[in-house]
Amino acid sequence: MGMLEGKVILVSGASAGIGRAAVQLFAREGAKVIATARREAEGRAAIASAGSDARFKAADLRDPASIDALFRYIESEFGRLDGAFNNAAMTQDCVPLVDTPLELYQQVFDTNVRSIFLCLQHELRIMQRQGAGAVVNTSSIAGVRGFPGLSMYSASKHAVIGMTKSAALDAAAFGVRVNCICPGTTRTEMMEIQMRTRPGGEQETLKGIPLGRVSSPEEQAETAAWLLSDRASFVTGEQLIVDGGRTVR
After folding, report:
1. Structural domains in the chain?
2. Which pairing describes strands 83-86 and 133-138: parallel, antiparallel, or unpaired?
3. Pairwise CA distance, residues 233 & 224, whole Å
4. Percent of the chain residues topping a pLDDT of 90
5. Is 73 known to be catalytic?
């Protein structure tokens, strides 16, 4: 039996990177996966190799109405939700705070913070009725330290950690766990965007990682799977850093 056997689990940001890896891993571990993303073609490709227990539902998590429609679909098709991996996010080019336009602040916070807030409301209402469930949010090591030129991204990921901790305290009363993962540099499209403008690029970044390499999306998905599983049954309110030792120093 897989560690997610029989669980109904939502994965957002499923069209690429960590989300895509999570869809495929969770399905292998026995979950019935609902994958969601804005990019429909990429999202459907993500579930193509995940087997018959993975379904795709397009949603724009920047749009509250689209989120409402997603959860109506989940409740009508499955009638329950055992786990959720709130992973949809965007990054930014490296730019000093004083040169950061207001529009970038709004885009980053709408995608990285407001979308998780709105999804959490739906998820926790369903799980409260059930009296069980687990949620994992994706933050970042940028949520536990600063990075030059990434003020809006870092601020949004700090917000995810704070929201996770408060939600965990709210949800504990009805038997639901809420945690987050804090990935370090991971081989995804988002990493490629950041490396275009980060001083020194990937080679300079590698110097700060004790294990001497970047993470794969699958390694991050494995961490999320454990937190969503019953094997992590006494873990809640945690920020689990998965960064090859980068923030140890």
Report:
1. 8-241 (3.40.50.720)
2. parallel
3. 13
4. 76
5. no
